[in-house]
Automatic annotation (TrEMBL):
Coarse class of the protein's main subcellular location: nucleus
Organism listed in the record: Aegilops tauschii subsp. strangulata
EC number of this enzyme: 2.3.2.27
Pfam families associated with the record: zf-C3HC4_3 (PF13920)
Protein name: E3 ubiquitin protein ligase
GO molecular function: ubiquitin protein ligase activity; zinc ion binding
Length: 246
């Protein structure tokens, strides 16, 4: 149980060594603390600087965010516009297709119309030829018509002449007929009227010769005692005179 001096001395030396070591450690720690304080000051300065920088950066960030928001809005608007353009482009494309179809159709129609025009031109050409031929025919027909008209005029003139001649002849004939009828009437009158007075009608017959006279003339003949037929001279008496009914 008793410690030796040597041991105690050793222990003391050890403690001395330990103390020196500890003292050294304290000194080191002090240096370190000084360094820490210095570092802390530096750090505070740096922190302040960083804070200031942070504020600045926050401000910038805010600006950037605001700018970004604005850009987003612009982008959104741009997208909407783009959508509208795309829709318009789709519509335009569809319209273009439609137009292309219409143009194709129109081209076809134009082609058909050109064919028809060609055909019509050819038809017009042949029609013109036909028209020329018809004009020639019409000219010929006009000439013929003119000739026929002239012939007709000539014939009408001739007809007029013949008609005049016929009229003249007819009037001559009429005159001749009238004359003939007049003669016939005179003959009849001569036959019917008394041959002595040429005025009264025959009323009596002399039965000896069968000549006829008016009653007045024969009575006068009897009263004058002439008593001969005025026609043939045959003697006759009152008894030879008879009334007749014509
Ligand atoms: Zn008489
Ligand atoms: Zn007689």
């Amino acid at each position: 149980m008793m410690l030796s001096l040597q041991t105690i001395g050793q222990a003391y030396e050890d403690m001395q060594t330990q103390n020196q070591h500890l003292l050294q450690q304290v000194a080191d720690r002090d240096d370190f603390n000084i360094k820490l304080v210095s570092d802390s000051v530096k750090t505070k300065q740096a922190s302040a600087s960083l804070l200031s920088e942070k504020h600045l950066l926050q401000k910038q960030l805010h600006q950037v965010n605001s700018s970004l928001e604005s850009s987003k809005q612009k982008l959104s608007r741009g997208e909407e516009q783009m959508k509208a353009y795309v829709a318009q482009a789709i519509k335009a494309s569809s319209e273009n297709r439609h137009h292309a179809i219409t143009i194709e159709k129109t081209l076809l129609e134009v082609s058909e119309a050109e064919k028809e025009l060609k055909w019509l031109r050819s038809a017009v050409g042949s029609s013109e030829k036909e028209y020329e031929q018809n004009q020639k025919k019409i000219a010929e027909l006009r000439t013929e018509l003119e000739r026929e008209r002239s012939e007709k005029r000539k014939l009408e003139e001739e007809y007029e002449e013949v008609k005049n001649e016929v009229m003249e002849l007819t009037s001559e004939n009429e005159e001749a007929t009238i004359q003939k009828l007049q003669d016939e009437i005179n003959d009849c009158k001569a036959i019917l009227k008394c041959g002595v007075c040429f005025d009264r009608p025959k009323e009596v017959v002399i039965t000896k010769c069968f000549h006829l006279f008016c009653s007045t003339c024969i009575q006068r003949n009897l009263e004058l005692r002439h008593r001969k037929c005025p026609g043939c001279g045959t003697p006759f008496g009152q008894n030879d005179v008879r009334e007749v009914k014509i």
